UniProtKB/TrEMBL annotation, chain B:
It comes from the Bacteria. The keyword NADP does not apply. Pfam families: FeoA. InterPro entries: Fe-transptr_FeoA-like, FeoA, FeoA_core_dom, Transcriptional_repressor_C. Keywords: Iron. Residues 1-71 form the Ferrous iron transporter FeoA-like domain. This is Ferrous iron transport protein A. SUPFAM superfamilies: C-terminal domain of transcriptional repressors. PANTHER family: FE(2+) TRANSPORT PROTEIN A.
Amino acid sequence: MADLKVALVGNPNTGKSTLFNLLTGLNQKIGNFPGITVDKKTGYSKLPSGKTAEIIDLPGTYSLYPKSKDESIVFQVLADKNNASHPDMIVLVADSTNLRRNLLLFSQVADLGIPMLLVLNMADMAKKEGIDIDTDKLAERLGVQVVNISARKGEGLTELKQAIAQTTAIATQNNSISAKDFAPIAIDAIKQKIGTDNDYYALQVLHQHEHLAFFTEKEQEEIEAIEIGNGFDTVKLQGEETVARYKHLSKVLTDVVTDTGAEKKFTFTDKLDSILTHKVWGFLIFIFILFFIFNAIFSWSSMPMDMIEGSFAALTEWGHEYLPAGVLTDLLLDGVVAGLGGIVIFIPQIAILFALISILEDTGYMARVTFMMDKIMRKFGLSGKSVVPMIGGIACAVPSIMSARNIESWKDRIITIMVTPLVSCSARLPVYTLLISLVVPDEKVLGFFSLQGLTLMAMYLISIIAAVLVALVFKFIIKAKERSYFIMELPVYRMPRWKNVLYTMYEKSKTFVIEAGKVIIAISIILWVMSTYGPSSRFEAIDKKYNTIEATSTDTVQLASLERDRSAEKLENSYAGIIGKTIEPVIKPLGYDWKIGIALITSFAAREAFVGTMATIYSVEGSDDEAVGEMRLRDKIAAAKDPETGLPIFTFAAAFSLMLFYAFAMQCMSTVAIVYRETKSWKWPIIQLVYMTVMAYVAALIAYQFLSP
Amino acid sequence: MTLSELNPGQKGTIVSFTDPEMAVKLMEMGCLPGEEVEVERCAPLGDPIAIRVAGYQLCLRKTEAAVIIIQ
């Protein structure tokens, strides 16, 4: 339990998160603000006094008047004294190189009357740019302690902790503007109504009471009545207040800030920008960076992924050998461990994607990508900020959907989340390669391009085109909740903070394993049960049949093959098999039989289950040599024939129909889970599941009916 | 005239805003009446634009720049 709750408040790009990481180390957790659908980052820090402070990182904002859902948290937490996150004191983090704008938020927060102190971050950088700040004078004029730090270099931390410990329980900040002048009668009425003696708090309540859940419906109506009765014009008054605050700040900062060379800060950034946002070079460099990310996600992750796969396989093998044989062991190994392996295998890709994205963000390049792509993306109902999640979708939709959180506009963000899973992710790759190798001849086009490779590329292109078109549809369906702004700071280019990169990697991987993991394990267990068990009468009959045959055979090779046949027949009669047979009439028009039906069902949890399921169904013995194993599977599948017509099942038409189905269908429980987590409602994952399934079915149906002779 | 009519490299001084809601947001980010603003560059496709104001760089869409009246 902490002795003191400290909230970090500040503008975006002030190094607030870096400071948070410095103060708390890895001793942090992500939770929810009670009743609010935004992540809350908290951690603990030891103070020199021996006390422990709980540090709460509030979303970055330019003002207490929120422009996005994230920003509205700041006032909600600061206003509600009963909120579990309501701080005992506030640390306001300001960028020393741009003090006036940063102090606007300071002066608003200060007027709420909560004890606080001011941190001037990037003090070293300000000095380099010729900005000199008289901190003693500033502290005197504001009435709070002012601490210089450099979060990037980790300087000033001891002084900050000391200052936190020294902050008095009673607010000391000086008055800034006279809040009462803006709406004297209304403010008096509110003060009486809600029992506060703080003018500015009363004014904020008039502005923002709709966001404050702790008022009862009756109170809300009464506040609304006071607003209307006094002709309270919220937009006009916000403007007037902002002007008044800047006027006050000009006085505060006179003789405090001496700026001798502010222009210097931009020379390097300007030079880089003239190349990085150039008409031609800008896009070429962007494409090159994308290619690099795409390539890194595949090539850097292949070794750790193989190792993870190998260790899980070894663990399962070891378990089967040494644990007492039985249902519980099977459930543990083939259900839980297999499910766990399916999650852990994604960690390398998630970690790499997030490391690269956080480097691009930290350096300031991401803001430029957004700047360059906004016009194109806007045509499709997306924003410049949608580019990153959609590109990441080529690796894996899960981390990409998490990264869509950077999009402030609710509508843009929802559309991005809705279409990102359409982009062909790495889990579709094994499905594509297996099917392409079955039906596309291994030939060269123009003596150079491999026909199979071109087909694979076409699948990726189709998926990106589909994502963009679906976004266009959503653009007309979804109503915007708030006005979409694109007013954004273009930060100066800087070296990435490597520690932040590591924290991001760690944090995102952890969130993924815990959040998505719960769902995946549950589904894996259900699937295991369904494909292992069936109606007992059928299973007994199968066992009896094979027991009789095996009793007469002595040949070990034949015995092994009989065992495989037995498990294949059991799978056919398991609950999963029965469901596969049940849905056969529905998938017949797409060109699939009941065996593919089982694969479709098992793929619901994760599409990469397709190859594994096909292998089990076609009872292919696992081989150490992957190429041989896959050859056999391919041969078996190619040889599979429809028992009624005697024609091959995997025709060109059926294979393409199946590829399109896998391209569009939402066969990924992790994505469903993460969309639920990110939108905090079941509405969006369900809409997504339905539209993607319908799209997959229709596309597969058209492809099969059109291509089949 | 409005900020959206300036070409890269041109400067102006902010006079007022035509959209009060946008005005609050712009002022909070440092675009105050009386402040000098310079159009730094346009995005490769002509929109949005990057401006320099109050010691830092902002980017905004042309429709948003059109609410800023300058001298």
